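ok trying this again, last paste got cut off
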Amino acid sequence: MFDFFRKHTRMMQFLLVLLIFPSFVFFGIRSYTGSGNGDNPTVATVAGQKITRSEWEAAQRQQMERLRQQMPNFDPKIFDTPDMKKKSLEALVRDRVMLVAADKLNLAVTDDRLQHLFSSDPQLQMLRNPDGSINKEVLAAQGMTSDMFAQQYRQSLAVRQVLAGVDGSVIATLADTSAALDAMLQQREAQVQRFDAKDSVDKVNPTDADIDKYYKDPANADQFKAPEQADIEYVVLDLDSVKKSITVSDDDLHKYYDQNAARYTTPEERHASHILIKVDKSAPAADRAKAKAKAEELLAEVKKNPASFADVARKNSQDPGSAEKGGDLDWFGRGQMVKPFEDAVFSLKPGQISDVIETDFGYHIIEVTGARGGEKQAFDAVRKQIEDEVKNQLAQKRYSELAVDFGNTVYEQSDTFKPAVEKFKVDLRTANNVPHTPKPGTVGPLASSKFLDALFSADSIRTKRNTEAVETAPNQLVSGRILRYTAAHQLPLADVKTKIHDRLVMIQSAALARKQGEALLAALRSNAATPMGGTPIVVSRAQTKDQPREVIDAILKAPADKLPAFAGADLGDLGYAVVKVTKVLGRDPAAGDAKAAQGQYAQAWADAESQAYYAALKSRFKAEIRSDAIEAASAAASEASGTN
């Protein structure tokens, strides 16, 4: 009957606004006519129009800003890799192809349709004022005017139409879906004989010559490289270090205790029962009067015999949730019942019965059966908690004041941390053999890629001076300096000989197992009656019976026109398996109903059609990415990083 009243905070994130646009909306309605000169070279072309490096970089900045809004700790350096740069350029090319296609196909959006879609799209509700007009303040916060928004929204809708026809044209019949699922989810009966590499370990013995050859093979060089690492010292300014220098008087702690008394008081709760005579608040006056009279009659009965309250509630209360429990509502606190009910309950003492109370649900008779809470904790009992809270608040304020000074100190006196240690009362920390890439499980500043990148920059390695103060976590600044640096290098053979020996044992034993398996496979293909181990099992993609993926692939891909069929499965370091397919069965029931999968199959088909159509559009509009664009951009980024 009674629902708890909870407060819900509405997250007004501008990210939603960004997400309603396709990724192409990077530059408004610019003409995209880059100069292509040496300072701003052309990186791609679409329909004869140039995409310049500056446009590409601007697109990446837009992407990074969107990610930063989603993830405050987002590290922009992930965009410095050739792979990410390639993906961002390919996305920009795709966006341009879609814009050109929308223009060439005359997929315009009229003003009336634009207004209708804006007014009816629920995703754009946060951009609309109550009267339906556009909220210019929200747009301004995104650096946009209403005209810019209208132009970009119009482009967005036009581009959606380019692929809408393709997506909507796919019809996946039940027969098509069933045929596809039969091919994917077919069951087969097979025998599997494994030749495990571990069974051949005692039959191999790598020689010193084998080990030397493996060590000198350029293809294996990366296995024996020790990463660059350094012995360092560093200082950390954070709330904990600031708190150490803060003292709070007893008078201030008592004052805080008095000002926040409610926080140190146990919330009041009541245990109560009630009898409800239901009547809607909009019911006619006569109906409400009749319900009230019934409640008054029951009140007189329980006042006369309070011990009968539970029995009266069971027989007469119209609250289905509590009537069968004698009206018992269990324990509850303030804010969990409607106000007239709550006011009455908290004005009564245990054992007292209220008068008839009117709420939107009807008329209630309430009996309070218990009370607890309301006790204030003694100051001494919460003193440490209060001191921590006050110090945290003061440290937060003090940290903001010290942060800039800390950064200036480690920068201006960059050959030592002694001034920073003395001025800010922080500890001088040391760490040995710190790698550029943090090891799994590393925590704290040494897990921060931002700090490690600063520490292992070319300038820091060369000068061994303090890095700039790097924010490695909220309210945490770190500066470090290299004491001893060891560049990445190949480990000597003596240090890795045992490792190579173990690796060669694995390789050679797997090769021996493969040879044994291939011999059996050849014999089976020559004579199907050749004895073979393994109990027949029925497998499918959904029911693998703990078989490796390579074995399942071999069973299901083996030609089934003539049975038995034989195939081999290379298990890599684990060995080899030979399979004998004896029966082809129906679709695995565990795969589900084809009709249920029809929509998913249609969507997959539509995605494939869209990709094919996009490829055709790329060819039609002569979309081309310059082969040297990504390499040049990556080199420029590396050069800039090395000079920072």
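PB: full thing came through this time. The two ends are 66 Å apart (CA to CA).
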